[in-house]
Amino acid sequence: MKKLSDIASSRHTWAWPYILFLVLFVVLPLVLIAFYAFTTADGRFTVQNFLKFFTHSEAISTFVYSVFIAVLNTVICLLLGYPAAYIMANEDYRTPKVMAMLFILPMWINFLLRTVATVELFNMIGFKLGEGALLFGLCYDYLPFMIYPIYNTLQKMDRSLVEAAGDLGANRAKVFTKVILPLSMPGVYSGIVMVFMPTVSTFAIAELLTHNNIKLFGSLIQDYITTSDLLNYGAVLSLILLVIIGITSFFGSTEDDSQKGGLI
Amino acid sequence: MQNPNCPAQGNVASQPQVSGDYIIEVKNVFKQFEDGKFALNDVSLSVKKGEFVTILGPSGCGKTTLLRCIAGFQVASSGDILLKGEDVTQTPPYKRPVNTVFQKYALFPHLNVFENVAFGLKMKKVEKTTIAKKVKAALKMANLTGYEDRKVDTLSGGQQQRVAIARAIVNEPEVLLLDEPLSALDLKMRHDMQIELKELHDKLGITFIYVTHDQEEALTLSDRVVVMSEGEIQQIGTPTDIYNEPINCFVADFIGESNILSGTMICDRKVRFCGHEFDCVDEGFGEMMPVDVVIRPEDIYILDNPEKGQLQGEVQSCIFKGVHYEMRVLTPDHFEFLIQDYHEFLPGRKIGMLVKPEDIQIMKKERLFNTFEGEIVKNNKVNFLEADWDLDPEVAAQFEPGDKVRVEVEFADVDLQDYEEEGTLTGEVHFILYKGDHYHLTIRTDEGYDIHVNTQDVWDDGDRVGVVILPKDIRVSKL
Amino acid sequence: MRRLFTLLLLAAGMMAAAQSNVQYELRVMAEQPLQILDTFPQPYQTEKINVTYQDGTYQLLGDTLAQGADFVVAAEAQAEWRAEFDSIFAFEAEGKHFVVWQNNRDIKNAQKRARAGNARTAFLTYLREQTVAPSRMWEYIGMGAAALVILLVVLYAVMLLRRKQAEKSMTSVQRETLHRKIADRRRRLFSQTYLWLLLLVLYMPILLILVYSFTESKVLGNWTGFSFQLYGNLFLGKGGEALNSAIINTVLIALIAALSATVLGTLAAIGIFNMRAKQRKVVTFLNSVPMINPDIITGISLFLLFVALHVSQGFWTVCIAHIVFCTPYVVLSVLPRLSGMNPNTYEAALDLGATPFQALRKVLVPELWPGMLSGFVLALTLSVDDFGVTFFTKGSGGLETLSTFIYADARKGGLTPELRPLFSLILILILTVLVFVNIRADKKAQKKA
What we know:
The complex is a heterotrimer.
Chain A: H1 7-10, H2 16-37, H3 48-55, H4 57-89, H5 98-104, H6 111-125, H7 131-156, H8 159-167, H9 172-200, H10 204-209, H11 217-226, H12 231-252
Helix pairs in contact in A: 2-12, 3-12, 4-7, 4-9, 7-9, 8-9, 9-12, 11-12
Chain B: E1 22-32, E2 38-48, E3 52-56, H1 63-71, E4 78-83, E5 86-87, E6 98-101, H2 113-123, H3 128-141, H4 157-169, E7 175-179, H5 187-204, E8 207-212, H6 215-221, E9 224-229, E10 232-237, H7 239-244, H8 249-254, E11 259-267, E12 270-273, E13 276-279, E14 289-295, E15 300-303, E16 311-320, E17 325-330, E18 336-341, E19 350-355, E20 361-364, E21 370-377, E22 381-384, E23 387-390, H9 393-396, E24 404-409, E25 414-417, E26 425-434, E27 439-445, E28 450-455, E29 464-469, E30 475-478
Chain C: H1 2-25, E1 34-38, E2 49-52, E3 58-62, H2 65-77, E4 81-85, E5 88-93, E6 96-101, H3 107-116, H4 119-168, H5 172-211, H6 229-236, H7 241-273, H8 277-292, H9 295-308, H10 315-340, H11 344-351, H12 356-385, H13 388-393, H14 402-412, H15 419-448
Helix pairs in contact in C: 1-4, 3-4, 7-10, 7-12, 8-10, 10-12, 11-12
């Protein structure tokens, strides 16, 4: 007779189909990136692809520029987003509840369409497409991703902490720097991750916002991957991007309950 | 089996039948969790038809695991569980003729009262009109008539409890399992429900197995009490047996309040503790045997004249407890007694104390000192409890590294440190027993071993400690 | 922030100036009958090219734009003069005046006006609508803003004076309270202004789409009068075959992906919830990988998988890819419901005789329903929104979803006008849903309190 197991522990088998699915469609494909990166087009092992990257000045400069743009965009989003999140979460300012929702709403509009609309807006007011437009467009696309996690942590924060700090003699500025800011850091971290990662890997937005004048790393990868005989080199570039993503998400892993999961 | 529609006549069911037909038999059941811990350690228990059995113990003692094994939610690692003589160890819960009342009711929040109660019958595909009739009867029995259409989350805790009970009994189970059903209710409600439960048991005549950590509840409700600790059954008996004749310190301490003291059995019917010889009624412990003595606080009589008492003392504190006063009395030898009396004796007053021979309960000591198995290692050290301890060089010289030895440490020679890192090994205070003039602690080490300690210091359950034993206090002998 | 606002005002002024220049240049038009040519001079676009004459008849110039362009270029080569404004240019050749409209949809208006009488008047009227109205619009906006600023300054000055007056007759305590109150109010005003300005900038492009969904103009920024034409076109499927199939594909893929993700994710969540801590950690980590991975990585990795397995990519590979990045969100929506649930309810169902499947259907699913629903909706929106993953897994079989359609469209330099009403509708739908959900949540919270 088949040995029965505990009710609770037997139910973990319900996750097996999904685990199998994850292995086949998440783990295996990621392994394949590494595999393609280390092989030639006819399947032999090589490190030539990597050597090519380090001597490929266009790729390296694009890479550095992309990281720079991503960092810049993250900083801009943080500078614009933190005050907004703070104002919305702080009851003193009596921000209408609907405001937080309005900030999230643009996320539901197709980002390409938003980008195209931004381009049209720039055309209308005669703003030249280029680096400025790119930064504006990126910031516009990802600002909600910065505001939301910070707003979430700030809102969940126990208000009595602020009152306690006030009670213990801290003035407004001190309350902010000594209590609110340190406690909101998890939200800031996850905001940074949620803005930095998509920015560094973006590919279509840059093309549209700069009339294809500025190339970001994502577009470079796209070019190589879609050209079938350069697929292995594209895999190398993807792998490098993956490493960057891995490092970033490692730093951001302190907080993960402010993910998009709870948006509705 | 009884139909809830026609309550059993009289009180037949509440008296355990003498005949040998057990409805539930638990035979040598072990339950080991995946982390290697034993939740049940060789548990055997037989329950007669119609009995009200309570499984009592502190949290984490395995009582709920035992209940869940009977219900079928957990499966014993080894051993058998028999229901009406039939092995059900491997039967899934939905095929067992038992029903459970859960601790937090576990009502289906999306169904109303009627649908909740009807759930089990619907699963059995009982005819609709029959369901309506039976649910009505069950609700009536649980005093819930008229609540059929209410949503369960609009009900009070007590009402939800009644729905949970109705939902279980409507299926006419052979055995009703109750997992701390009253723990979520407030005190007043709990008392009312206790009475209702007892009445329900009498009416239905089915077997109740009731899990609780509340000793008062256990003593009030049950025909028999099963006291559990650390996955093992400590004692099974009627409430009076358990209270008056606890089998060990754990039971004595857990059930009711008690003064537990170390003493010596001088000979049959004579025991010595607190520097005084007492008459008692126990026999068969041998001569000059170390024993534990239990005296209930209400069994100590206070005399105005200190000279007339067997022991003298000074009242330290006096608290009014409603019916009686509770006093702490300190003897000149620094033994502390807890005494309950209807009269008030103010702090500072000198009194005499008297105990009747039949109120002294003697228990054999489980151990006199710590004993471990160890091995001599290099550098004058001995390894036991998965740690290396320094030995007296002179003692160590008598052994070779690799020698297997027996290690003995007196309870009082184990030092506990506030700062874990100062200890040779670390652990947690696991069990505390006050023995009149000192505390007897059990320290559970991080590796899962127990060390017993006598100390004057006050520790709390769960405190992290470092354990230190001086080289001179470690006795080793060759195995 | 203030600087950005100034920038916007400046930009408005500049534009008005630029447009009046163009207007001026058009005065060289001769008083001769006009020939109106309607075409769409954007590269790579295939459309029938017509000439519309003054009497309202058409002449087919050719099937392709190239042929039409050839015609125009040949005529333009002999032009004695030419004028250009925005999407319209005009020239005179062989004694005939040509006016080239970029906008297909303007034919009817032009036709109407041509029939009405003087074609030149018609053209000028049209141009006035195009140029004068917008430039005036910006002028008005600029003037309005200036007036508002002046009004605010005056009001503030008056308020300041009155307060000074009032303070004279106050005790120091009263004054302090007043000052604190004013400081609070000022802080609030400042912060709310910041939020609203930020929102305004965030919503400008979206508002642009919304506003221009009510005009027929082919290009954004070119207002040709209020009309529901685009909405009509969208519903009648007149936006073009490609757009229609993109919409259908998007909806189908989103439904398939969201449904599969909900089933798979709910079961997985139940499984994960019942795992031991260590196991659970591993699986939750695996689950978070598709969420952490940027679109491009998910897309490329799946692309490589399909290439390695020699699977031809198309509708179903896109579906699988969407399930990959949607399911984690379902898992994360369902898990909190599980931990909020009484752990014994499932056991209670078994205890009452339900088989595991019955317990799932009758007890677990009803309890997890809200989490499943929000997971489903989230998956739906994520799927509709996705571009990166779809782009790499759609293969070369010509499959387009809305996102890839927009991308292809934008690359060509234009945006199919029917997308504007489509996304305006989506925006309004989402807004309604969100407002509804929020109101309900608020009510629930109030009830609890």
